């Protein structure tokens, strides 16, 4: 691997510039996510049924891998260099001074763990015990990039204890009316006691990065990101989607497609006072159409919502990859003048993600730009 025409080997400032190199996840060795304070997985439509434990079936892994490999082939056919995670024993139990967990999860969704911020790789703290070591399948790549180009930065966020005290255990018992009452307080299953964030709660817009406060990212995590990224010239904006009572990862809620255009989730409007960042700077927000699958029709063990439909991956400001069966969304994007490529991806849904979640962009064309010239910004210091 060599630097291309002066571009650092790690270079990605937003979600839409021309994609050159990307990591695509793998279902090898995937396990069911264990029940833990930050996660109460449920069998869809069967309240109280025990959630499976241990490794996923060989068939479930093969079906997901077939679709991930299909995405990799499509990307390669468009000239994108595709990299894959290394092997990791997800079946291995973890025991730290603060917690134990019977098994780990998987490397299907690198987006949750790893993020490229300009020429720097940031490894998230993660928010769940079973995902504590999920950076490991990507470390061989991080070392390769870091060794290859001295311009590449590498920042590892502090690991939280994930002890019982880090979680608000009664969160899962709150009835819906209480969730509604509390929706503006943005308190979820993680407390504010430690720095916690998943990388997939971030969305990059050049100089500006928005970060969703959620079940997987707390205010301390956003403060840490501000303190680390502001001196490097970024502006970090917390964002909230108050009608999402179980928010986890921003990329099924608010998805930028190109400069000036964001795909939004009609069930999860952005908080009114945060909308002006976009409207005052000439951005258009378009609502995603109703997904083809209802929540009840999502795969049995999938913990994500039907809005995986809008978890698209941009190859460039003019080309986007969409799940093969999401015709209404494909039509909407085509009406916006985008070239829409499709791949089957429904078997990956069980692992909590679709096309954006299951990828981590390493290198795109372009550089840091200011897409919000009239933003009013309050730096931390
Ligand atoms: N990992 C993304 C899931 C987000 C959602 O269920 O809406």
Description:
The chain is an alpha/beta fold and 381 residues long. It has one domain (19-364): L-arginine/glycine Amidinotransferase, Chain A (5-stranded Propeller). It is 18% helix and 19% strand. The chain is built from 6 helices and 17 strands. The chain has helices spanning 58-77, 136-148, 176-182, 219-229, 272-279, 327-335; strands at residues 19-24, 81-83, 94-95, 100-101, 114-117, 120-123, 153-156, 202-205, 208-212, 235-239, 254-258, 261-264, 284-287, 313-316, 319-323, 339-343, 359-364. It has a 3-stranded mixed sheet. Strand 14 (313-316) and strand 15 (319-323) form a beta hairpin. The longest helix is centred in the N-terminal third of the chain and has 20 residues, at 58-77. The chain is globular. The mean pLDDT is 96. The structure holds gamma-amino-butanoic acid. Residues 248-249, 252, 304-305, 307, 352-353, 357 line the site of gamma-amino-butanoic acid.
How many domain regions? Answer: 1
**Number of distinct beta strands:** 17
Beta-strand share of residues:
15-25%
Helix percent reads 10-25%
Order of helices and strands: EHEEEEEHEHEEHEEEHEEEHEE
Structural class category: alpha/beta
CATH architecture: 5-stranded Propeller
What is the alpha-carbon Rg in Å?
A: 19 Å
Query: How many individual helices?
Result: 6
The stretches of 5 or more residues where confidence is low (pLDDT under 50) are: none
Main-sheet strand order equals 2-1-17
Main sheet record: 3 strands, mixed
Distance between the termini: 39 Å
CATH superfamily: L-arginine/glycine Amidinotransferase, Chain A
Oligomeric category? single chain
CATH fold call: L-arginine/glycine Amidinotransferase, Chain A
- CATH class descriptor: Alpha Beta
